[in-house]
Amino acid sequence: MGAAKSNPVAITTKGLGRFDPSYQSEAERDRSLHHALAFERVTGWPIHGTYVGDEAIRFHNEGPSHWIFDVRGIISAAQHSQWVTQPIVMARRDWPPSAINSEGYLEIGCTCMGAGGVSERGITIDLDQIAKAEAIIRKNQAYLALVPTRPLPHYPAATLRRYAFGRCVVFAEALSRIRGLPAVTLVPEALADWAEVRPDQMQHAAVLHPDGELEDVWGKYPTASIAERYGFARWRLSEDAHRAMIEDGIAERPAVRDEIAEAETVIRDQLALGQTS
After folding, report:
1. Which residue in 110, 142, 192, 245 could disulfide with 16, CB within 3.0 to 4.6 Å?
2. CA 83, 222, 197, 75: dihedral to nearest 10 degrees?
């Protein structure tokens, strides 16, 4: 019982934080679209879509950790894949050719959409259904008590997609100049068992705060939390590695300067909205 009291999975899939099964069934009839949109309204964590090829098969919410906020509960990414995505995929046999990649496998992926991304993709929504879901979510205080507060500033989903991975170095450099704090590279020395890349293939850049926490496009977090996000079991922080990447990048492609300036504009515009951390 003691473990269950602090276990988000147990509490939200079997315990007091579980959504009523009839509501779960109702939500899943529309791929959990309206539940996830309402959850973003309540918590700020953006809606994500799981796609097979060009077709959205399920919606949920998530942040920069391995936790998924789903109508079925707060579960890990691995559990979501096993309990939610795989059964949907396996139940269907008529996937179109566009859903199959060059190696003959289904092209399955997840993208950070945000409410704006749902509209941009032309997905039909029902405002009454969102309002109904929002009311149900707000009543489930046992679930919401386990959802962390999203730190400010809240960058839109398009910005998260752009700077969470491939352009993190540019974002960190721009944020460093604005914050007046050093940008560092999180250099992995060993990866978690689930990580599918070698340590020399994956690094992440962020800004180092005086309290030892790091800030990237998702906000300010303990270094260990960001390391876990990217599958780093052991790591070190290096200002020199970040500086080398910036200098090498500019030498190879001078347009990097413009990309840094663009990122600075994005950050300043967000901070101008009053979203300070």
Report:
1. 142
2. 0
pTM value is: 0.87
Q: Would you say 53 and 95 are in contact if contact means Cβ atoms under 8 Å apart?
A: yes
Residue 190 burial (10 A CB sphere; 0-12, 13-18, 19+): exposed
76-91 residue pLDDT tens: 988 999 999 999 999 9
Residue 46's pLDDT band (cuts 50, 70, 90) = very high
Question: How many Cα atoms are found within 13 Å in the side-chain-facing hemisphere of 122?
Answer: 2
C-alpha distances in angstroms, 234 versus 56, 140, 161, 188? 36, 37, 25, 6
What is the amino acid identity at position 82?
Answer: Q
- The answer to whether the beta carbons of residues 45 and 60 sit under 8 Å apart is no
Is residue 136 within 8 Å of 19, Cβ to Cβ? yes
Angle between helical axes of 168-179 and 239-252 (0-180°, round to 10): 110
Helix/strand/coil for 254: coil
Alpha helices of the chain — where are they, by DSSP H? 2-5, 8-13, 21-28, 33-43, 77-80, 86-90, 114-120, 127-139, 141-144, 157-163, 168-179, 223-229, 239-252, 256-272
SS3 label, residue 22:
helix
Give backbone dihedrals phi and psi of 149, rounded to 5 degrees, phi first: -70, 130
Q: Which residues contact 13 (CB under 8 A, 6 or more apart)?
A: 72, 73, 75
The pLDDT-based confidence of 192 (bands split at 50, 70, 90) is: confident
Residue pLDDT, tens place only, 101-117: 888 899 999 999 999 99
- Give the helix/strand (H/E) hosting 235: strand 232-238
Are the beta carbons of 101 and 95 closer than 8 angstroms?
Answer: no
